[in-house]
């Protein structure tokens, strides 16, 4: 099955769900967190999606692809840390934290799998392929 867009990737779908859930959840954070934890958790969770799209666009070059996937993983780790702070500050329940942290951990595993199989996700260089004609 050919995938034509990063939006078709299961990891992208999961990341998008996580980012949207965190957006809704963070609406209930205290006002004093507006430019701190609220902004950070929204930014890092969205950045996973954005970097995944960049990785997809750069999959012609394995090193660039891996670099962007590594950025995704870093943003996912930031999101997990923000979830820890949200729980420890009492903004989310331990149960909600466990649910969201589990989603984040699953995303991390998926990103790791993509990184390990990066060579199979890259596309052939169009210029090289055209010159073979």
- Topology-level CATH name: de novo design (two linked rop proteins)
In sequence order, what are the helices and strands, one letter per element? HHHHHH
Q: Per CATH, which architecture?
A: Up-down Bundle
Q: In total, how many beta strands?
A: 0
Question: Structural class, please?
Answer: mainly alpha
- State the fourth-level CATH superfamily: 23S rRNA-intervening sequence
Unreliable segments (pLDDT under 50, ≥5 consecutive)? 125-133
Overall 3D shape: elongated
- Nearest-angstrom radius of gyration? 17 Å
Tally of helical runs: 6
Distance between the termini: 26 Å
Characterise this structure.
With 133 residues, the chain is mainly α. It has a single domain, classed as de novo design (two linked rop proteins), CATH 1.20.1440. Helices cover 74% and strands 0% of the residues. α3 packs antiparallel against α4. The protein starts with 9 loop residues before the first helix and ends with a helix.
